TrEMBL record:
Keywords tagged on the record: Coiled coil, Membrane, Signal, Transmembrane, Transmembrane helix
Organism: Mycobacterium rhizamassiliense
Native organism taxonomy: Bacteria, Bacillati, Actinomycetota, Actinomycetes, Mycobacteriales
Signal peptide per UniProt: 1-26
TM region(s), chain numbering: 162-181
Protein name listed in UniProt: Transmembrane protein
Length: 655
C-alpha cells in the first residue's frame, strides 16, 4: 500500500508538472550572467572563442559592450519584447547592446542604445538586415554575433574621420621635417661620438664600456678596415724583409704579423656574427662589439710594437744602393715572365669561356702597369740616393717601398695566371662529387617537403630550388665556366645542407613533443571520462560545482583535440588543464555524494542508491533536498529590475 500511495503521489506530481510546464526549451527573459550566454548549445568551442574575441575587440576599440544570448525559443513572447525585458532584468546601460537569438523559434532581436556615439539608426538597421540576418538564415550562429560586433566596431563618426585625416596629414609633414633635421643632427653627433671613441684605448674593455653603443659600432667598423690594411701592408713588407735578411733575423716581425692576423681574424668572425640575420639584445651587441674593437686594437698594437725595430732592420737609406740593385733585377725577371704569361692566358681563353677567366683576364695589362710604375720609382730612388739631401730621406724610403709593393703585386698577378689552369682543373674534377652530393640533398628536401610541414618549409623550398637551378646551370655552363659552376654548386649545397640539418633536429624535437602530447591527451581523456561516468551514475546527489568543473575540463579537452595538429604545445597546455579540472570535479563530486549519503542515512529506506543515481526523484521534487548537500539549490531566473538610459535603436524579426 505504501508503495502504491508513493507511486500515486509521483504520478500526480508528474502530471501536474507536465500540464503546467512551458513549451520544451522555452526560456523566459532573465538576467544575463555573462556577455555570451548559450543556453541552446549553439556555439562550438571555436565559435565561442571567435564571438568572445569580437566582443573584446569592440569594447577595446569603442567601449561598447555587446551581450549575446542564444535560447531555444522566447517563451511565447515576441523577439523585441523578450529582448527588452532581458535588458531590464540585466541592468544593461547606455553602452550595452544586445543580440538575442531564438534557435528553434527562428527569431532574433538586435538592440543598440541611442546614446552610442557615432552609430545611427540607419546604420543599425543596415547591420541587422544585411549582415546579421544572412548569417542567422545560414545557421551560422557565431557568425551572426561576430557580424554584430564587427559592424558596431566599424561605424565611425565621419567628421571625426575627416579631422583625423587632416591631423594625420599635418603630423606627416611635421614628421618629415623633424626626421630631416634629426638626421642631420644625428650625423653630426655620430661623427663627434666616433671621434671621441677613437681617443679611448681600444684594448681596454673597461674604458670601452663608457662608449655609446652606436659609436662603438662605428668604431668597430672603422678599426677592422684600418687594421686589415695595416696587416696587409705589414705582411707585404715582411715578405720583402725575409728575402733580404732571412727568416731568423725577421722572426720577431713574423710573429708580430701572425699574431695580428689571428687577432684580426677573431675580430672579423665576431663582426660577421653581428652582421648576420640573427638579432642580438643590446647587452649581447655591446659585448660582441667590444670583442671586435679589442681584437682589432690588439692586432694594431702588435704591429706597432715591432715597427721601430723593423725600420731599424730595414734602414733603406743606408742600404739603398744594394736594395735598388736587387729591385732592378726583380724588374728584369718579372718583365721576362710577361711574354709567357700572355701566351698562357691566350691558351686559356681558347680552352675556357671568358666567364671562367674573369679574375685573371686583365692581369697582364695590370702587371705591365705595375712594372712601369716600379721602374719609374727605381729611377727616382737612384737619383735621391746619389744626391742625398737632408730632408729627402723620406722620399727615398717611400720610393723604395712603392717599388717593393708594385713588384709584389706584379708577381701575384703573374702567379694567378700561371695557377688559373690548375684551379680550373681542380674545379672540373670536383664538379662530379659536389653534384652528386647536391642531388642527394635535393632528394631529401623533396621528401621533407612532401611529408612534413614546418616553419622552415618556404626556406627549404627556396634552398631546394636554388640548388636545382645551380645544377641546371652547371650542366649548361660547367664546361665553359667550371670555376663559376663549382662556386655556385658549393654555395647552394652548403645552404641546403644547413637547412636540412636544422629540420632534422626540429623533427626529433617534434617527435618528442608529440609523445608528450599523446600522454597528456590520454591522461586528460581518461580523467574526464572517469569523472563524467561517476557524475552520470550519481547525478541525483551531485551539485553544480562539480558539473561546472567537468564542463570546463571537457572544453579544454576539446580545445586540445582541435589544436593538436596546428599547435602541439598549446594542445598539451589544454590537455593538462583538462586533467586538473577533471581532478577538481572528481573531488567536488565525491564530497557531494558523501554529503548526500549522510543526509539519506538518517531518513532510512531502501531507495537511497536509486535516488542518488537519479533513477527516481525522491524528495528532490518536493524541495526536501533544497539547500542540502554540496550546496546544491535549484537554479533561479530573473533579477532586480532596471532600465537603460535613452532607448534603443534596432528591432527584432524572423530569419
Amino acid at each position: 500500500m505504501r508503495i502504491a500511495r508513493l507511486l500515486g503521489v509521483i504520478l500526480t506530481m508528474l502530471t501536474t508538472a507536465l500540464l503546467s510546464a512551458p513549451t520544451a526549451g522555452a526560456q523566459p527573459p532573465f538576467r544575463l550572467p555573462d556577455h555570451i550566454t548559450d543556453n541552446a548549445g549553439a556555439l562550438s568551442t571555436s565559435g565561442y572563442n571567435e564571438v568572445a574575441a569580437a566582443i573584446d575587440k569592440l569594447y577595446n576599440d569603442r567601449h561598447i559592450r555587446l551581450w549575446v544570448v542564444y535560447v531555444d525559443n522566447f517563451s511565447g513572447l515576441s523577439a523585441l519584447n523578450w529582448a527588452q525585458q532581458t535588458i531590464r532584468a540585466s541592468d544593461l546601460g547606455d553602452y550595452d547592446a544586445l543580440l538575442a537569438v531564438s534557435i528553434t523559434g527562428r527569431a532574433y532581436a538586435f538592440l543598440v542604445p541611442n546614446d552610442v556615439r557615432g552609430v545611427t539608426e540607419t546604420q543599425v538597421d543596415d547591420l541587422r538586415h544585411n549582415r546579421i540576418e544572412p548569417e542567422l538564415r545560414d545557421g551560422d550562429w557565431s557568425g551572426a554575433a561576430v557580424a554584430a560586433a564587427n559592424g558596431l566596431d566599424a561605424q565611425r563618426d565621419s567628421l571625426g574621420r575627416v579631422l583625423m585625416l587632416a591631423l594625420l596629414g599635418a603630423v606627416v609633414v611635421a614628421l618629415v621635417i623633424f626626421v630631416l633635421v634629426m638626421r642631420y643632427r644625428r650625423r653630426r653627433r655620430r661623427a663627434a661620438a666616433l671621434a671621441a671613441a677613437r681617443r679611448v684605448d681600444p684594448t681596454d674593455p673597461t674604458a670601452l664600456a663608457a662608449v655609446p653603443l652606436e659609436a662603438l659600432d662605428d668604431l668597430s667598423r672603422a678599426l677592422v678596415v684600418e687594421v686589415d690594411n695595416a696587416v696587409r701592408t705589414s705582411s707585404n713588407e715582411l715578405t720583402v724583409a725575409i728575402d733580404e735578411f732571412g727568416e731568423e733575423r725577421t722572426a720577431p716581425f713574423t710573429a708580430a704579423v701572425n699574431n695580428a692576423k689571428a687577432a684580426l681574424s677573431q675580430a672579423f668572425t665576431v663582426r660577421q656574427q653581428l652582421d648576420d640575420q640573427t638579432p642580438e639584445t643590446p647587452a649581447q651587441r655591446r659585448e660582441l662589439l667590444t670583442r671586435v674593437v679589442v681584437s682589432a686594437g690588439r692586432a694594431d698594437r702588435e704591429l706597432d710594437s715591432q715597427a721601430e725595430a723593423f725600420e731599424q732592420l730595414r734602414d733603406l737609406v743606408i742600404n739603398a744602393p744594394s736594395r735598388l740593385a736587387t729591385l732592378t733585377q726583380q724588374v728584369v725577371e718579372l718583365t721576362a715572365r710577361i711574354g709567357p704569361a700572355e701566351q698562357r692566358l691566350a691558351e686559356l681563353h681558347r680552352e675556357f669561356d671568358p666567364a671562367a677567366l674573369t679574375s685573371v683576364s686583365g692581369n697582364i695589362a695590370t702587371a705591365k702597369e705595375r712594372l712601369a710604375f716600379a721602374d719609374g720609382n727605381i729611377g727616382s730612388a737612384r737619383a735621391l740616393a746619389e744626391h742625398a739631401v737632408s730632408g729627402q730621406q723620406t722620399r727615398l724610403v717611400d720610393a723604395v717601398r712603392a717599388t717593393e709593393s708594385a713588384l709584389g703585386q706584379t708577381r701575384a698577378l703573374l702567379d694567378a695566371v700561371d695557377s688559373a689552369a690548375d684551379d680550373i682543373r681542380h674545379a672540373i674534377d670536383a664538379l662530379s662529387s659536389v653534384g652528386a652530393d647536391i642531388q642527394a640533398g635535393i632528394a631529401r628536401a623533396n621528401q621533407q617537403l612532401q611529408h612534413t610541414q614546418s616553419a622552415h618549409h618556404s626556406e627549404l623550398a627556396a634552398a631546394r630550388d636554388a640548388a636545382t637551378s645551380a645544377v641546371e646551370a652547371a650542366r649548361g655552363t660547367g664546361s665553359a665556366d667550371p670555376l663559376g659552376a663549382f662556386a655556385r654548386l658549393s654555395k647552394a649545397d652548403a645552404e641546403l645542407n644547413r637547412i636540412l640539418a636544422t629540420l632534422a633536429k626540429e623533427q626529433a624535437d617534434a617527435e618528442r613533443l608529440q609523445r608528450s602530447l599523446e600522454q597528456a591527451l590520454f591522461t586528460a581523456e581518461t580523467r574526464v571520462r572517469g569523472v563524467s561516468e561517476y557524475i552520470d551514475t550519481r547525478r541525483g546527489g551531485i551539485g553544480p560545482e562539480a558539473r561546472t568543473r567537468l564542463a570546463e575540463a571537457q572544453r579544454h579537452l576539446q580545445a586540445a583535440r582541435d589544436t593538436k595538429t596546428a599547435s602541439p604545445a598549446e594542445a598539451i597546455a589544454h590537455a593538462n588543464a583538462a586533467s586538473a579540472m577533471a581532478a577538481n570535479a572528481q573531488s567536488l563530486a565525491n564530497a557531494d555524494v558523501q554529503a548526500a549519503q549522510r543526509a539519506y542515512a538518517g531518513r532510512g529506506g531502501s531507495d537511497t542508491g536509486a535516488v542518488l543515481g537519479g533513477i527516481i526523484l525522491g524528495d528532490l521534487l518536493s524541495g526536501g533536498m533544497r539547500g542540502g548537500f554540496g550546496g546544491w539549490t535549484p537554479a533561479s531566473f530573473g533579477g532586480s529590475s532596471g532600465s537603460s538610459g535613452g532607448g534603443f535603436m534596432g528591432g527584432g524579426g524572423r530569419f
